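Database export, one record per block. Field names are fixed; values are copied verbatim from the stored entry.
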Amino acid sequence: MKIINLSNKSFYILSKFQIQVNLKKKVKIISWIVTIIITLLMIITFIKRNELSNIVTNQIQSSSLVLLIVTIIIEIIPTYLSPELFVIQSQLIGLPLITILIYLIIGSIVGSAIAFELGRKYGMPLTLKLYNYEKVQKLEKKTDKYGKWIMLIAAISPVPYLPIVFGAFGIKRISFIFYGLIPRIITLIVIGLIFN
């Protein structure tokens, strides 16, 4: 029987890898839980929209604060939801468009900016803790090929919008603002006007 003796350095590398795998799993689980909860709430809201319209309209201030916080969270944490869904849902219930858009736009700007700056500061190590290496590599190839236009497509389409990854790629802040944040805001406004 051969006994394998791992040095402290090897053990440290293995345990660090295990921590990264566990963190990635936890983030994925949290992301799915948040996605499922918000999706269920949206379905319930759609089904009970007539009853909820009166209740929510009376409590718009507290609802808007919750909406702001949820928007910030979904911009930072990788979920499969976007603020556009909240615009549509709020209009189905009959909430005031301007109020909802103000909170969604502020939440989207704050959440996107935080995620982008986290990506810039902590780079690929943080990004790879949150996202699958193959997905990041695929997005990096597309970004290399198409440049800032990939960010624009992600900002205005149902494709996941990942500001933390764009920050890790070293995209300039001004490019992020013009190709990420501004199109995202315009999209929220246009969808609000369409469903108003």
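Remark 1: Confidence is low (pLDDT under 50) at residues 1-17.
Remark 2: The radius of gyration is 20 Å.
End of record.
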